[in-house]
Amino acid sequence: MTRGRIATIAVVVLLAFEPVLSPFIHVDVTIASAALLFAIAAMSANLLLGYTGLPPFGNAAFFGLGAYGAALSLKYWHVEFATAAVLGTALAVLGALVLGPFLLRRRGIYFGLLSIAFGQVFYFIAYRFTDVTGGEDGMNFSRPFLLVPSLRLRETAFYYLALVVFVAAILAFEAIVRSPFGKTLIAIKQNELRVRYLGLDSNRFVFVAIVISAAFAGLSGALTGMLNNSVGPLMLDWHQSGDFVLSTILGGSGTIWGPLVGSIIFVVGRDIISSYTQEGWQIILGALFVACVIFFPRGILGTALQLFAAKRHG
Amino acid sequence: MAEASAVPMLEARDVSKSFGGVQACSDVSLTVREGTIHAVIGPNGAGKTTFFNSLSGFYLPERGSVWFAGRDITRAPNWRRIELGMGRTFQTPSIFPELSVRENVALGVRSKRNLAFRIRPASAEPQRKLDARVDELLGFVNLGASAERPVAELSHGAQRLCEIAMSLSTEPRLVLLDEPMAGLAETETDRIMSVIRGLHDSLGLTVLFVEHNMRVVLSLAERITVLDRGRVLAEGSPSEIAANEAVRDAYLGREVLEHV
Questions:
Q1: pLDDT at B2 over 50
Q2: Where do the domains of chain B lie, and which CATH numbers do they carry?
Q3: Spatial contact of A235 and A67, defined as CB atoms under 8 Å apart
Q4: How high is the ipTM of this complex?
Q5: Cβ B110–A193 below 8 Å, yes or no?
Q6: In principle, which of A62, A84, B86, B254 could form an S-S bond with A217, CB 3.0–4.6 Å?
Q7: Least CA distance to A202: which residue of chain B?
Q8: Which domains does chain A possess?
Q9: Interface contact B116-A193, CB threshold 8 A
């Protein structure tokens, strides 16, 4: 077994003990669930930012489409949990299939700006289309059962479900970025011109990366909506996209586990600090981000892995 | 193969390209026959690089057409030209700096074998064949010993060799080299020269290159096209070009002919 496999299992076992440790470390299981789901959305940002070299400033659109897709399928079709999650993810993927062709030729800041613009379009649709989406208030619902009516998801059960989904997502993510396809994405990030001069239409790869990214974000959004038993237009807002990007950079973009590290700091930190002060969180987050960029230019995990690798090579 | 060699490997017909009113090349025509080493030379600002980039799909020419093995590729995107059998290098080696030498070359091999899009890892047998092919390419440019190092750590000359191996990884029939000796020390120049000769002699490829170093041009090229102020000034064998009055005039007082 490789060093990486052992580390993976250790982290998963540690996460599995969260509900037991919760009273001692003062991290509520619901917050822990939110952090795991947030990490899936951060992974979605990481695929574009850390592995393809594109700024994903509009990934909240896919996150929100996932959330609203799940909420609407609960409202109109009264489906169970898993179906809602799948339908939400499918709506996000559909969104990417529609937006992807417009995004796939843009690079750098133009990609980022167009992503924000598309994201805001969905924000305003959700905000204005009150009859269907609930407008500014969003939609509230009670959490559906999972598969069969007897399987009700209380907070601890939800946490383990989130953990299973998270582990599946990160294993899928790892397989993708280590596959030949993932290696091509990494090459596009480093030197897209050369990728084209090796006979590959890089736009096709960018398009597929956007769709995969949307699937992760949509899954995260669908589950986050059902964790909170509500969805709202802020889930589609560009601030939300920014939070995913920030968490990714904080943890280490271009690393597999960095988004989890960043997401735990972001979600748990926000929860703890907001209980003391209202505005304080923004200031502390800002300071943390600046410190990270200065002292951990590759993010917390990215810099740690770099130091570790340097030590091993003497 | 007799019919194949009747069709030129690469043909440019009246290619013109300007940048904001500056005519970088106008009505440049050139024919590269299969199996030759062909050089494009000219004083600074003659339009060599612009012309070269029009051939490789980096720029779209405003007028004229480009033909590859009898097929009109004037508007073909750059990646499509590679698929069809062209390879190219750049003045500054275009590589993946943080990836290993092996991974740099492997990407092109996967591209050629339609493996680059796979989400599932390659199974043992194709992987072994892929590794063997990469080793073969690295052996050709003599970089086998550096296979696992990041390319960014290599010398400029070794990066150029890696780039040549990358351009070979897609199994081209024609290789375009843009100033292969740019920025190299004299000892490295000899190394690269023998590799370029090997492209022709042992791999049987057609080579078109742009170069300033006249020693390199005269010793490698079988055919030379001279550009000056965006136009073809002369074309011929090395001895014809060295004796050409117009070429001497164009270079008069400039740095290049002192090597001849």
A1: no
A2: 1-85+174-260 (3.40.50.300), 93-171 (no CATH)
A3: yes
A4: 0.91
A5: no
A6: A62
A7: B79
A8: 33-312 (1.10.3470)
A9: no
